[in-house]
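Morning. Coffee machine broken again, so started the prediction first thing and wrote up yesterday's gels while waiting. Chain of 122 residues, entered below exactly as on the submission form.
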Amino acid sequence: MVSCNHFIKSESLDIKIACYMTNVDGYGELETVLKKIKSKDSPFADCLEHWKKCLEEKSQSIKDKDFDKFWVNTYQRFDCCSKKEQKQAGRKCNTEASMKKDIWDFEHSVLDKLKEFLKLFN
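Came back before lunch.
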């Protein structure tokens, strides 16, 4: 696991650089976090697990990162958008639009370390 959850400070240049690796227990990236903090039922997105197993039975595979992206997109579009919104999915069911809806649990414990990191900027 790569750890970069700290500040790098240069006295001579008077700058601070910080980074935070978003993941769940050292695994994944933003998509993995979003999958974990979903707040609505996700029957469409959850059925993708069967699709993934079907691929494996046919000696095919999908990378975990790509699968998680697909899961998040399916959750946003089919589990959290109305039929009317789905007709304009590019605008109404994308990541930006989903941040304005109550489909993520921003109080989920998986975000605790990120919140601690962000408090360093106060």
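Residues 18 and 51 are 39 Å apart (CA to CA). Going to sketch it on the whiteboard this afternoon.
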